[in-house]
Amino acid sequence: MPVERQAVLMIHGIGNQQPMQTLRSFVETVWTKHEEIHEEYAGSQVWSKPDHISKNFELRRLTTPQNSAEIRTDFFEFYWAHLMHGTGYGHLIGWLLSLLLRRPSSVPPGLKLAFYTLWVIVVIAIGGWCFVIGDGIANPDGPGLLERVPIWVAVLLTVLGTIAISFLGFLMKEVVGDAARYLRPAAQNIQRRQEIRTAGVDLLKNLHDRGYDRIIIVGHSLGSVIGYDILTYAFQAYNVPKKAASEVHTAHDAIEKIAQDSSAESTSDIDDVQKAQRNYFNEFTDPAKINGPWRVTDFITLGSPLAHASVLLADDDESLAKKVALREYPSCLPALEQKIRTTDADNRHFSYGPQASRTNNKEVKIPHHAALFAMTRWKNLYFPCKYILWGDLIGGPIPKTLGKEILNQPVGTEVRNGFLTHRFYWSSSDWKPGSDDERQEAVSALRDALDLVDEHS
To answer: What is the rounded CA–CA span in Å between residue 100 and residue 242?
Structure first.
């Protein structure tokens, strides 16, 4: 089915974001400066229109003319920062303790160095406090530590200490606090999580109601976890094709066969998998075929904490795998169900039915509520992390527990020589990989993942 109108929904990450701050810079990179996809006479123009979908007067819809493939794109932002309020240090302490007080063997490989480094800092800090207290007990009538050093040193240490504590407090509460509250289902966080997810699901529903042919979800940082949750809860209302026009299931059977082979420890080429996913999307949405309502073709994650899902979404990799098997968390490709008492992989499916009474009297196979990645492609971009400070510690390859058919693409940049690159997934640079480097330049990889001309349809 040809695409004429598509929507891109950007979900920002942590840290006191301003409305439209993320979206404007994102659109400038993936559209305005991407001259190769501009239609010859329309150019790179962007119109800022009222956003009647988000129900937030601070937001705008950024609209483009037709591109070289005659597709018009509307860019939206899901702004959630205002819903994450009331964060205190208690929320942070509880979350950090839950991360620190765990078996080292349960820590993902990408976080082990940071885990041990954090413990060293904690031990040094506790040791420092013990030294100060012990010194005071041993010399109750003598001069304090600051009284034994020159006055200028005491003043400097006091000023620097005050600045450091204030900055660290602001950073932890206003930036890390978002993640601490969203990623921990403690009682005091449930309302915040619920409001954000509800707003996101409502927004995605509104995009579907607008009749877009294709919807692309892009999540940066914590926004990728929020996007994953939105897709999880939204798909449950779109998996049943209530207006089915035919009983064709060729593409469905093809992608299900790949999923069956994958569950049997066979490996599939990611390009072939994503082509099969798009074929099933086309079959599912074609008005002359399944005529299903789902319109999300791609989920793109940038610097995603889902790389560490085993500690952020569960207790360890084993408990995460159980939740995936129970279809609480969607995987790519979808978790399969056993229809009859056999261990034969060919008798395991991500769909059920037919239930003709639910599908316009057509014998149609219905994907289960967690099977969205049978037709939605998942592309994950990350800066490989080295020594904690180079690359992106927050991101990384999505673990195979969430799916072996996720496109995990490492990327590179020369911005700040690769130092703390978490914010630079759409910052242009002239960086080029070496001959044996599997990384791709970050902006080039992002544009390929978006595929605004829908070349890989």
So the answer is: 48
Arithmetic mean of pLDDT, 129-153: 64
Q: How do the domains of the chain map onto residue ranges?
A: 1-239+295-331+372-457, 240-293+336-369
Q: Which residue has the tokens 């056999």?
A: 342
Q: CA 319 to CA 338: how far, in whole Å?
A: 20
In this structure, the chain runs to a length of 457
Q: What is the pTM of this model?
A: 0.91
* Paired tokens of 309: 């899902």
Place of tokens 């035919």: 246
Beta bridge partners of 377: 298
What are the tokens at 195? 């409001």
Extended beta strands in 236-354, E state: 296-302, 337-338, 348-349, 351-352
Q: What is the DSSP string of 424-457?
A: -TT--------TT---EEHHHHHHHHH-TT-TT-
Please report the pLDDT score of residue 255 as a whole number. 96
Using CA atoms, how far apart are residues 233 and 219, in angstroms rounded to an integer? 16
Provide the pLDDT confidence category of residue 51 given band limits of 50, 70 and 90: very high
Smallest CA-to-CA distance from 232 within 329, 299, 335 is with 329
